[in-house]
Amino acid sequence: MRRVAMLGGVRIPFCRSYTAYAELSNLDMLTAALAGLIERFSLHGAHIDEVVGGAVVTHAKDWNLAREAVIGSALAPTTPGITMMQACGTSLQGALGLGAKIATGQIECGIALGTDTTSDAPIVFKRSFAQRLVQLSRARSFGEKLAVFKGFSPGELAPQPPSTAEPRTGLSMGEHCELMVKEWGITREAEDLLAYESHRKAAAAYDEGFMDDLVIPCAGVFRDNNIREDISLQKMAELKPAFDRGSGGTITAANSTPLTDGAATVLLASEEWAAKHNISVQAYLTLGRTTAVDFVAGEGLLMAPTVAVSDLLRQSGLALQDFDYYEIHEAFAAQVLATLKAWESEDYCRRRLGRFEPLGSIDRAKLNVKGSSIAFGHPFAATGARILAVLAKLLHSQGGQRGLISVCTAGGMGVAAILEAAGPRQAVQAAGRGEKVRGEV
């Protein structure tokens, strides 16, 4: 197996939906982010073996966003584009697939990317009216056309916007997360504090110049417009719950991610390809894992990353504490806190993760050190690429041996990955050696 080099990432600023990017499509944003990556790494006219990614909220016309973005870019037109989707884990999963092909020698380089906009969400008619339109297009005579509208009701014209509810439960992600809050005893104060820290860290990352080569301007926007430098815990505490409006609700607009528009990209390659193109390696993508939980039967919708991370630790022989940085996607502050509590719980780790002892706690000073999704925003499919680029740069510019990524997704899934610093190969156990992993039942 060859090492998978993370060479860096570029994204456009993330903006709250219905604001700066209200007139842009997913393709517009994805093409802009890809152009920024091409400019940064001098890839004009270059053939990339695969460009993989997509969007969660899409129109029927956007059936191959990745390929269309390539065609609209300065990459060689021979570059294939592959569109895929795994909700909020889309671009991270795209990177893992590319990494596997690079590691096994199938390809030399690839770009993982993602985009999303709810400002340009597809609005469709009810199924009954849509079927009438299909029948109308096939009708030959005037009489057949009139017959199509027999029994027609004006109510059929009511538009059907996309829903964020889980199809199997009818509950939104926020409602599901409120169930996790009650299960794990998460407090409103802890959620607000985590969100407050996310904004403060994100603002500091811009002020210190950390974001300068990670974010390119788009549509006259130079910076994520959701970050609140002047955020106040007192004002946050005054907000009403957004999902459980009873006395027990804790999740608010301030401690969860907003609907966001944006796009992000990341470049991966073999070491040989990177050297040939005179591009420095920032980090290595070493392991990845995707898992799912039975949320329909009552497991927490956003708890799958706890399982994915546990599996990664088994495979690598590492402990949860063996990381210099932890990038846990902040779909909600409550999700992050529930994840941390689960890893600290002896009962959960024994019963659900099959371990003799809990994974334990992490050093919170190493968590989302440059801010995360609550501050930056969360264009669903773009978040994985954003996190990959940030973590690779952290390892490259600020030291440390390895970092852990954890992303929860709709559908009760989770995606996790490990990045290691560029330098001597780390001593990591290979999978399948048969050695007993510490803490495993």
Looking at this protein, list some descriptive labels.
single chain, 441 residues, alpha/beta, ten-stranded mixed β-sheet, globular, disordered C terminus
Using only C-alpha atoms, the radius of gyration works out to: 23 Å
Shape: globular
- Number of strand elements: 10
Distance between the termini: 29 Å
Question: How would you sum up this structure, described in words?
Answer:
This protein is α/β, with parallel strands linked by helices. Helix content is 34%, strand content 15%. The protein has 14 helices and 10 strands. The chain has helices at residues 26-40, 65-71, 90-103, 127-138, 142-148, 173-184, 188-207, 233-237, 271-276, 304-316, 333-344, 346-351, 373-376, 383-397; strands at 4-11, 15-16, 50-54, 81-83, 109-116, 260-270, 283-292, 325-328, 402-409, 413-421. Strands 1, 2, 3, 4, 5, 6, 7, 8, 9 and 10 form a 10-stranded mixed beta sheet that branches. Helix 2 (65-71) links the parallel strand 3 and strand 4. It is globular. The model is unreliable at 424-441 (pLDDT under 50).
